[in-house]
Write a structure and sequence with these properties.
The protein is of the alpha+beta class. About 35% of the residues lie in helices and about 15% in strands. The chain is built from 14 helices and nine strands. The protein has helices at about 5-15, 25-30, 45-50, 70-80, 85-95, 100-105, 110-120, 145-155, 185-195, 260-285, 310-320, 350-360, 375-385, 420-435, and strands at about 45, 125, 140-145, 200-210, 210-215, 215-225, 240-245, 290, 295-310. Strand 8 (about 290) and strand 9 (about 295-310) form a beta hairpin. Helix 12 runs antiparallel to helix 13 (about 375-385). The protein is globular.
Length: about 450
């Protein structure tokens, strides 16, 4: 299959696609996509792949590999519930197992294992502290993306629930079903068209969302998932892996108390932390490599950027926009509450070109604004609907229109869409009317009820 010709076809098909398409347009798009040959990915065993040099030999001493004894214990825990037979099975099948060595389990020093994982590059610690941050630990801890992807694909709990290529799904009438498993989506079809029938298209999904752990301690994790795994297991904890923990700038600890500086510093730290993550994913998207899958077979696969899933504040930080505009489509601010009109998605390529042009004209090499250009920066950012400072890390994603790939609120923003304009005020009005009924009034004063 001619890759260059395929890219030209895709460019023609995907040009100026609006954010919401009517059924007729979708059907026409699907008809225009060339018919693909059946997916036939060669399958090898792990031993065959290691012998051919496509996979490194398994190393039980590596920081990210369990010992044989630990695997026996894990299989035991997964197999049994707590009952009387468990003790008997523990003695007969685990403790008496010829490969079981109690020393491998009892003498594990977790601190030593963590240090070995850091030395092996499985865990990377990036110090991001700068002058003005004050006494706070702005450390970004991340795992190697390739290892996280290998864990997601090779988890044996996924066996029988993984997809290795695009599969067209039709209903009883023979019409295409656009819902269902991810490998039946247009995204998977286009990815398969680019890679060809002999390579598995590997979906990369990032989920970024701040949360809290014990005692209301804030934490900002990056999760990674793969939509090659069946939708029936995507809600399971093992279908997601923590890729990294982003640093959170604490304003109360900053020695630089300027609010504008803190806001800019927070955005800068977020995007600079995402730089190495995006660079590693880009490398996985540029070439095919062999992966071990949950069925213990080895297949040639190549990753592609699929979705970035976030809440409103994370979307605003990622798109370097504010929460009062839609970062995904061209809907103007004063029409955000409309539900009767469709708007085209924003072109990531056009925004990237505009940002690069503005940064070259209005910013110094260190990223500061040139003299007498503050007003021009403000005007340019309003037109682009994206800040030009700091440098947006996501504009470097490989062949990924990230502005159109962030699932967003259907009504744009909760407080300024249909809910904010009509439903919330109506609800408060009704609540007020009910509470002011005579039977609910407990007392009055000179100020009223």
């Amino acid at each position: 299959m001619d890759l260059e010709e395929d890219e030209q076809i895709l460019a023609t098909l995907l040009k100026d696609i609006p954010s919401c398409m009517i059924a007729a347009d979708i059907q026409q798009l699907l008809q225009d996509i060339p018919v693909q040959p059946p997916v036939a990915v060669p399958v090898r065993t792990v031993q065959e792949a290691v012998a051919a040099g496509h996979l490194p030999p398994l190393d039980v001493e590596a920081g990210n590999v369990f010992s044989q004894s630990e695997r026996i214990l894990q299989e035991h825990v997964l197999k049994h519930v707590i009952n009387a037979n468990e003790l008997k099975d523990l003695i007969q099948r685990v403790l008496h197992h010829p490969d079981f060595n109690a020393d491998e389990v009892d003498d594990h020093d977790m601190h030593e294992r963590l240090m070995r994982a850091v030395e092996d590059g499985d865990i990377e610690v990036i110090y991001m502290w700068e002058e003005g941050d004050g006494l706070q630990d702005n450390t970004f801890v991340k795992r190697k993306v390739s290892k996280v992807l290998m864990e997601l694909l090779s988890d044996e709990r996924m066996a029988g629930r993984q997809h290795f290529g695009f599969k067209l799904t039709t209903d009883a009438k023979g019409d295409r079903v656009l819902g269902g498993d991810a490998n039946g989506s247009v995204s998977f079809e286009l990815a398969q068209l680019c890679l060809g029938p002999g390579i598995v298209s590997i979906s990369i999904v990032l989920y970024i969302d701040a949360t809290y752990i014990k005692h209301w301690i804030p934490i900002w994790p990056i999760y990674m998932a793969c939509l090659n795994n069946d939708k029936s297991v995507m809600s399971r904890p093992y279908a997601w892996r923590v890729l990294g923990i982003l640093p959170i700038l604490k304003a109360s600890a900053c020695t630089n108390t300027d609010k504008d500086w803190q806001k800019q510093r927070r955005l800068e730290m977020y995007h600079r932390a995402m730089d190495p993550v995006i660079a590693e994913i880009n490398e996985l998207c540029k070439s095919a490599r062999y992966y071990r899958w949950a069925d213990k077979k080895v297949r040639l696969g190549q990753a592609f950027w699929h979705i970035i899933s976030m809440d409103g504040l994370e979307i605003a930080a990622t798109a370097l926009s504010n929460t009062m505009v839609c970062p995904t489509c061209e809907c103007p601010k004063d029409e955000l509450d409309r539900t009767d009109k469709l708007y085209p998605t924003r072109s990531t390529d056009d925004v990237r070109a505009g940002v690069e042009k503005a940064r070259a004209e209005l910013l110094n090499r260190d990223g500061s604004i040139k003299d007498r250009c503050i007003g021009k920066v403000d005007d340019t950012e309003k037109v682009l609907k994206m800040k030009i400072r700091p440098r947006n890390a996501f504009l470097s994603c490989y062949k990924f229109p990230f502005l159109a790939a962030m699932p967003r609120e259907e009504l744009h923003q909760f407080l300024i869409g249909l809910y904010g304009e009509y439903i919330i005020p109506s609800a408060f009005h009704l609540i007020t009317l009910v509470l002011r009924k005579p039977e609910f009034i407990l007392s009055t004063s000179d100020k009223g009820v």
